[in-house]
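Notes from the 1:1 (GR / supervisor)

We went over the backlog. Supervisor wanted to see one worked example end to end before approving the batch request, so GR pasted a single chain during the call. The sequence is below; no edits were made to it. Supervisor asked that the structure be written out right there so they could see what the output format looks like.
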Amino acid sequence: MNRDMIEKLLKENNGIIKSEEIATLGMDNKVLQRMALKGELERISNGLYLDANYIKDEYMLVQYRCSKCVFSHETALYFHDLSDRTPFQLMMTIPSGFNTRLLKDTEKYKFFYSRKSHYELGITNTVTPYGNQIKLYDKERTICDCIKKIDKLDSNIVLTAIKRYMSEPGADYAKLLRYAEIFKVRDTIKQYMDVLT
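Structure output shown during the call:
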């Protein structure tokens, strides 16, 4: 019976299961540990397991490990087709004061902080190449974030992304300017708009 419940949870959660999920169902955590020893599950991190039959989706796993992480900057540009370069370092935004163990892995991840009042602005969803849903900022928020932090990013990627965005038929300039006002990059955005549109 335990095994059926675990398999059901794995299917519902795209191959991922947390030990706390099975604890709420009254099951012992050792069930997952035994399944990992048999090679049926892979232990991803403390209390987080992946079905061995699933492909590891780094984007989804990061958000499981850090629920407040929102993909942003160059990573968001990639998902919005504003950059052709696959991110070698995943860039995410978290609320100021939030802490995650992922902060230590500076080779794999790059974090930016956002004021709590701005953190949720522009959060949307997309689907990874493996078919899983993740959170990221919309195009307009991403453009503003990239302009604000251009000194910490690849400026060529950012400039190419801005040009692409400005040439898109569905570009929402009103939203872009609204965000630009909030993030204090309106003058810079206006300059790009004057040159590129």
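Supervisor's comment: The chain has two domains: 2-54, 59-196.
Batch request approved.
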